[in-house]
Structures are given as C-alpha cells and as structure tokens.
C-alpha cells in the first residue's frame, strides 16, 4: 500500500484489506473467515494460525495459547491505526491451532459540544451535529 493508492471507502474495505493483503504478507495466507455485525465489530478467523501450529493441542497449551497472539493483536492494531482507524483488538483460541481476532472500532464523533444544563443540575448536556 502506498500513499498514492486510493483510500478505502468504508471500514469493511479496510478490514478486507487486512484479511487479504496484510495477512498474506505477514503469514503467507489469507484469513479463512471474516464475520461482522455491520456496527463496527469484526471477527477474523484463521483455522491454521502459523504461530500456533507448532504447539501441542492438549488442554494445558490451549489455556496458554492466547499469550502467543499478543504480538499479532498489536500488529493489527498498529496497521489499522496507520490507516486512520482506532480500535481495540483481542484474541482467543477456541481450538488449537485456530485463532479468532475480535476488532471493535472506536467510533470517533466529530463536532461534539458539551454544555452545562441547568435542568440536569449543571451536568453536561451533549449535542451532536454534522
């Protein structure tokens, strides 16, 4: 991706880029499954996650496996941040060597005004406009 590339039209396009291009560059394969609720939450699933394929599938290691995903969560969060998207990224391992990454976008609201409201005892009243 270069500065001359067209920007993404929406969040879903950006996540698709992460699933196809970014994941392929880092792990030499695309994400196996992408799910969304179309409200800023995305679940990326890799059924044979490279960093987990060399670990035993026993229950003992299943409990420790999420520790191996912290670096990957940071990679995705950093990539999205550089694309102008703020989000939280968490991971879980339902079954070895499958990993699921949960992306939750932090919606930034522009043009927010907070003013004291006498009817609320001086508490702030939030007004939004576009």
TrEMBL record:
Its principal location?
Golgi
Per its UniProt record, what Pfam families does this chain match? TRAPP
Where is this protein found?
A: Golgi apparatus, cis-Golgi network
**InterPro entries named in the record:** NO_sig/Golgi_transp_ligand-bd (IPR024096), TRAPP_component (IPR007194), TRAPPC6/Trs33 (IPR037992)
Q: Transmembrane ranges?
A: none
* Domain of life, source organism: Eukaryota
The family classification in the record reads: Belongs to the TRAPP small subunits family. BET3 subfamily.
- Please report the name of this protein according to its UniProt entry: Trafficking protein particle complex subunit 6B
Q: Whose protein is this, by species? A: Ranitomeya imitator (mimic poison frog)
């Amino acid at each position: 991706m270069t500065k001359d590339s067209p920007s993404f039209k929406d969040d879903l396009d950006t996540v698709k880029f992460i699933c196809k291009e970014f994941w392929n560059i880092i792990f030499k394969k695309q994400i196996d499954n992408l799910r969304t609720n179309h409200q800023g939450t995305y679940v990326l699933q890799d059924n044979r996650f490279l960093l987990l394929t060399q670990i035993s599938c026993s229950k003992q290691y299943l409990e420790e496996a999420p520790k191996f995903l912290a670096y990957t969560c940071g990679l995705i969060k950093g990539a999205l941040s550089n694309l102008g998207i703020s989000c939280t990224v968490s991971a879980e391992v339902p079954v070895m060597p499958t990993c699921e990454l949960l992306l939750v976008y932090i919606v930034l609201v522009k043009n927010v005004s907070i003013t004291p409201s006498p009817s609320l005892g001086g508490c702030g009243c939030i007004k939004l406009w576009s």
